[in-house]
Amino acid sequence: MAAPREQAQGAQSQRLEGREARRDVASPTQKDRMNRVPESHIQGSHRGRGWEAWAGRGWGWEVPRGGDSTCSAGLPPPTAYKEKMKELSVLSLICSCFYPQPHPNTVYQYGDMEVKQLDKRASGQSFEVILKSPSDLSPESPVLSSPPKRKDTSLEELQKRLEAAEERRKTQEAQVLKQLAERREHEREVLHKALEENNNFSRLAEEKLNYKMELSKEIREAHLAALRERLREKELHAAEVRRNKEQREEMSG
């Protein structure tokens, strides 16, 4: 059982050694292509440390950290640059998007103010505002004039102002008193109208009550007169009956 396992491990180690040997025996053009990097590509959009570290690890060339873009193998010809651009992966294009070239600054003039547009970033955009010094202002620019001096007021003017203020105060007091008088007059009118309406209502109620009382009195008197008439008729009938009875007794006696 141990012999086949040792044979399999030996065959696997031989395959690995053969693969490493084939990797070492690479064509010179392929090695040059791997060790070259375009200077314009380094000086352009891929200056960051992350790109340098990624480039050194992934493609087999070395980029100096001090800012020098000279490669160990020298500058490549245009054909090598084209071949190298063909070999770039999608990751290199993404890195070029993350490190764009700075746009030239734009300067705008607004009178005595200069606005300088800084680099655009993903978070927003910044501006630099530069104000000119007073010496740079042109003589044609309007000069701020000092405020006019106030004239000294005399005693007569003060007296006139006081009199005018007193007149205004009196006018306001008269207006207030007039408004109060009008309000009181209105209140009196309202009270008088309410009293008049109350009196009218009382008078009408009294008249109606008197009419009802007179009517009931007349009805009662008429009823009493009818009763008296009936009593009188009864008395006459009773007297006539007594007289007839007395006459019959006399005739029979």
Automatic annotation (TrEMBL):
Gene3D superfamilies: 6.10.280.30. Residues 133-147 have a biased composition (Low complexity). Keywords: Coiled coil. Residues 1-49, 131-155 are annotated as: Disordered. Residues 16-39 have a biased composition (Basic and acidic residues). Residues 155-197 form a coiled coil. GO terms for biological process: regulation of microtubule polymerization or depolymerization. SUPFAM superfamilies: Stathmin (SSF101494). Belongs to the stathmin family. Interacts with STAT3. Interacts with CLU (secreted form); this interaction may act as an important modulator during neuronal differentiation. Exhibits microtubule-destabilizing activity, which is antagonized by STAT3. This is Stathmin-3.
